[in-house]
Amino acid sequence: MPKKKTGARKKAENRKEREKLSRANREHVDVAKQPCNSAMECDKCQRRQKNRAFCYFCASVQKLPMCAQCGKTKCMKSSDCVIKHPGVHSTGMGMVGAVCDFCEAWVCHGRKCLSTHACMCPLSDADCIECERSVWEHGGRIFRCSFCHNFLCEDDQFEHQASCQVLEAETYKCVSCNRLGQHSCLRCKACYCDDHARSKVFKQEKGKAPPCPKCGHETQETKDLSMSTRTVKFGRQGGADEYGASGYDSYWKSSASGGGDQDEEEDYGDEEEYDDDEDYEDDEEDEEEEEEDGEEDTCASELKRGSFAECVPVW
């Protein structure tokens, strides 16, 4: 029988599992739970915004600033402070040590926070994927898309996530061959089969899905997602037949049979009015020609009789 694990052995294995999970989740930090991205209400204008050193709307300083690294609002006497304050709990501006250039939030005067926050700030490259605004250009919080893991501002997060699971192709086929794409990259919006999902540049970790051969982002199985293809309401996809098939042939057939949109019907109406105008002009020209022919006949009859006064043109 195998030996029973001791308490120290169990603690060591649990610690290794926790370290392994923390290393795996280090790339995708939950930005919404970071102290530098926490919600703050201004003391002066009472407007909610991201944790900032100065209010985005009125530029006022808060009474109780929060550290962007550790999230504390009061510095205790037992901490590793750069500025020593023995026997006193410092709050407010007495606790502040610096302002982060990336997240625009206060950093306390603790030695660990001052030395590590600028290197590992989660908002260092947090530009919105939709509006391309940085943290300094808008007052809201920063979020990550749950599908493609790109940064989103507070204004565009719902609109982006509603349209994120749309492929940049019209079918679910692999971008490199004609087979069905079983793995989808939500950052590149493309599908790959089992053979073309293997990349020589990005290595696949054991127990994880293969990375995208184009950008290296972790792919997901297409059957587990609510993926949809790109569709357009014009061109060859505009006129589908009764079986759902679409193409240039069905498009021109539907256009010829009057199955187009209202704009096309209006165009047809304009063309009919234009044709009516042309017919009216043709009728006027025919009447003028008939009148000229009648005048020529009268001139010929007068010439036969011998009277030239009425038929000689006056120049």
UniProtKB/TrEMBL annotation:
Belongs to the NOA36 family. GO terms for cellular component: nucleolus. Residues 10-25 have a biased composition (Basic and acidic residues). The gene is ZNF330. Its main location: nucleus. This is Zinc finger protein 330. It comes from Denticeps clupeoides (denticle herring). Coiled coil: none annotated. Keywords: Metal-binding, Nucleus, Repeat, Zinc, Zinc-finger. InterPro entries: NOA36. Residues 261-299 have a biased composition (Acidic residues). GO terms for molecular function: zinc ion binding. It comes from the Eukaryota. Residues 1-25, 236-315 are annotated as: Disordered. Pfam families: NOA36 (PF06524). It is found in: Nucleus, Nucleolus.
